[in-house]
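Bumping my old thread because nobody answered last time. Still need a sequence for this structure:
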């Protein structure tokens, strides 16, 4: 078991935002601009795009 991903060390979203790639952030921005934030989050969850989802949840928290 990896202790670095324990729930207590992660943000409230449960995702380590420091590991989000620039490509995931870029896609998240494009998706949310095209289909809206909530739909982009839904599609990212359905497709298990974890990095994109993390970036979208970061945008939502702002």
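Sorry it took so long. Here it is:
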């Amino acid at each position: 078991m990896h202790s670095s991903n324990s729930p207590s060390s992660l943000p409230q979203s449960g995702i380590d935002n420091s590991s989000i790639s620039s490509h995931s952030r870029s896609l998240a921005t494009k998706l949310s601009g095209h289909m809206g934030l909530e739909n982009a989050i839904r599609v990212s969850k359905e497709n298990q795009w974890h990095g994109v989802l993390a970036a979208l949840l970061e945008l939502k928290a702002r």
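Residues 1-11 have pLDDT under 50 and may be disordered. Let me know if any region looks off to you.
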